[in-house]
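Let us work through a complete example step by step.
Step 1: write down the sequence.
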Amino acid sequence: MSQHQVRSYDYVNSAYARVREALLADPSGIFRDATRSASARARSLAAELHVKIAGVDVATEIVVATGQMTEEPGGFYGMPVTRLPVSWEAAHHPELFPKMKGVLSICPLTPSETELEFFGQYEPPLGAVGDAFNDLVGHRVAEAAVHRLVADIARHLHNRFSES
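Step 2: predict the structure and record it as tokens.
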């Protein structure tokens, strides 16, 4: 089985310290809350990953694991970058879905804007058949799902800070 890379980024109109603190306090909760888009799912404790395929919304619950958050220099103009190791897999029938492993980076851009960037790798499911599917369309599905997840997290954090 081969590893495939995916990268996505979005922005939060809020200060780096607030974004970092929220993710440090409850990273799994941020992922879970960010991916809930309907009150029917509000009772769920799992995060959910969404993607549209040929106009059809496909979703599966995911189990998110996070590692130790670190802060290091190396951002824009020598500003800090916070890195959060993240991995996820489908909560039900994980053998049928890609497993993702990567890092969510949080970087200040301005005093009131923060960039979220995810860079990771995934393994398509089902061995050689999964690799062939990935070559045809699977990589686009994985990229779309990651873009949606990062956008959901950015939107959730923006809304959270707008309300306070």
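Step 3: interpret the result. The CA atoms of residues 103 and 159 lie 23 Å apart.
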